[in-house]
Automatic annotation (TrEMBL):
Residues 71-228 form the Helicase ATP-binding domain. GO terms for molecular function: ATP binding; helicase activity; hydrolase activity. Residues 352-500 form the Helicase C-terminal domain. The keyword Nucleotide-binding applies. GO terms for biological process: DNA repair; replication fork processing. This is DEAD/DEAH box helicase. Keywords: ATP-binding, Helicase, Hydrolase, Nucleotide-binding. It comes from Mediterraneibacter hominis. It comes from the Bacteria. Pfam families: Helicase_C (PF00271), SNF2-rel_dom (PF00176).
Length: 502
């Protein structure tokens, strides 16, 4: 940082400098602002920034080169954004950082505490003492927080409860896994996490998708790791790298130049790593298998589609989404009634699943489903294991599947969406598809990640001559929002038809 006094008449010249701070009568500027400060005469033209001294850390031999490089870069910063694709080894990279620093707090989704953080630590870093701080009582949580270990892992809700105790616990490092949890600057979890900036000296964030909706979501994550990088004003940062749409003032957009400037600045405190750029993985193979709908199934489908055509321009997007979900039920041979009972009917989809499983043979398979009814009924019919939100021994099932002791697993992508590695498995079957590209991509990465040595096959079961074939899967291929795309397209078609008929 450059520390100087700024005369009042020069204040207007420094307002555009990011990361500036005023403290005890002096201004502090990031080293990168030296050129501007010279231009406005605030520092001598001969002033040179001392070359930053970096240390070379010896890392574990099993790390890949790109992981070791990221560890070294991160350890030479007080904070760092580690934005690595799923399947590139974020957890191991973070554990290596913790090993070098000392007492570390890790925040992550509850679903990956045991099956990712605890398991990976025990496998790769047996010398590190690690504890799960989640508990169903405050006394258990406090007891875990006061244990004499190296790494303390908890979910976000536990952190909210324990944050005052954490302030008194002398942590040297804090790691936020799946840091897009703090993408909203106004959310309570973001406020709670940012409150540790002046408490815990070393801070890191991990995510494969830190900005799922907009680059605006990067600000709070980077503020946590490097508060001086973009300064204290979110709105000032927003105005620097984004443009407001005058027709829709709530919309902010970027030109390519804006993006280039933003990511050039981000590169001073973060790394963005794509899986294809760093890991030599076997190919993905996608296979479409189609089935004909039965008479009753077709009747349900036709009635819902007609209802959509008749009413879409009077419906909200929420109402339209409910109809799309109902169509997805029909494709799988059932409908959930208003009284929560379930009506089932014959579907050729089950026969196609049976045929597909027979073709695969005795190899491990994950069958992705969108409904609890699918998971429960199919796991029973095909003698597999079903994983739902009601499953109590979830972690045990995941470990058994990892070890190859379970052949056939039925689950929703959200239950296994992040941090879980199944490299002994090479087949995914999509019995029903998510409307979320992020869910779809994450489900693929459960098997296509570091450690996978074999070709990964993804089989999609589709209803012929329906939007399952013509729209839903195609939207996922294009990484588009299915609901938004169909809501707009089907609404416009109805309006055009009404115009022509009129």
């Amino acid at each position: 940082m450059i520390e100087i006094e700024v005369p009042v008449e020069k204040i207007p010249y420094i307002r555009t400098i990011e990361g500036r701070r005023f403290r005890d009568g002096h201004w502090f500027f990031p080293d990168s602002s030296a050129k501007i400060l010279k231009q406005v005469g605030l520092i001598d033209s001969q002033f040179e920034i001392p070359e930053k001294q970096t240390s070379k850390y010896e890392t574990s031999k099993f790390l890949r080169k790109y992981q070791a490089d990221i560890v070294n870069e991160a350890l030479n910063h007080e904070g760092y954004g580690i934005f690595m694709d799923t399947g590139t080894g974020k957890t191991i990279t973070a554990l290596e950082i913790a090993k070098h620093i000392g007492k570390t707090l890790v925040l992550c989704p509850l679903s990956v505490i045991e099956t990712a953080w605890i398991d990976d630590c025990r496998k790769f870093y047996p010398e590190i003492k690690i504890i799960n701080c989640w508990g169903n009582s405050q006394s258990k949580r406090i007891e875990a927080l006061h244990a004499k270990v190296d790494v303390y892992v908890m979910n976000y809700d536990t952190y909210k409860i324990l944050k005052n105790e954490i302030r008194k616990s002398d942590f040297q490092c804090m790691i936020v896994d799946e840091s897009s949890v703090m993408k909203n600057m106004k959310s309570q979890i973001t406020t709670d996490i940012l409150s540790m900036i002046d408490v815990i000296p070393r801070r890191y964030v991990l995510s494969g998708t830190p900005n799922p909706n907009s680059n605006l979501e990067l600000y709070p994550q980077m503020k946590f790791v490097l508060p001086d990088l973009f300064g204290n004003s979110y709105y000032g940062w927003q105005a620097t790298y984004f443009h407001q749409d005058m027709a829709n003032p709530h919309v902010w957009y970027q030109t390519q130049d804006d993006k280039d400037r933003l990511f050039a600045r981000l590169s001073e405190g973060a790394v963005f790593l794509k899986k294809e750029d760093c890991v030599d993985l076997p190919p993905k193979v996608f296979e479409i298998k189609q089935f004909e709908m039965g008479k009753e199934q077709s009747l349900y489908y036709d009635n819902i589609m007609q209802d959509i055509k008749d009413n879409i321009n009077q419906w909200s997007k929420f109402e339209f989404t409910a109809k799309l979900m109902k169509i997805r039920e029909v494709f799988s041979g059932f409908v959930i009634n208003k009284d929560a009972t379930i009506s089932t009917f014959k579907t050729n989809k089950e026969d196609l699943l049976k045929q597909t499983l027979e073709e695969i043979g005795d190899k491990q398979v994950i069958v992705w489903c969108q409904f609890t009814h699918e998971i429960e009924s199919l796991s029973e019919k095909f003698k597999g294991v079903g994983l739902t939100s009601k499953t109590k021994n979830r972690d045990e099932i995941i470990r058994e599947f990892k070890e190859g002791n379970i052949r056939l697993l039925f689950a929703h992508p959200k239950l296994l969406g992040k941090g879980v590695t199944f490299t002994k498995c090479t087949y995914n079957i999509y019995y029903s598809l998510s409307f979320s590209y992020e869910e779809y991509r994450q489900s693929q990465d459960r098997i296509h990640r570091i450690g996978q040595e074999n070709k990964c096959t993804y089989i999609i079961l589709q209803a012929k001559h329906t939007i399952d074939e013509t729209k839903i899967y195609k939207c996922l291929e294009r990484k588009e929002n299915i609901v938004d795309e169909l809501y707009l397209e089907m609404g416009l078609k109805v309006k055009e038809k009404e115009k022509n008929n009129g």
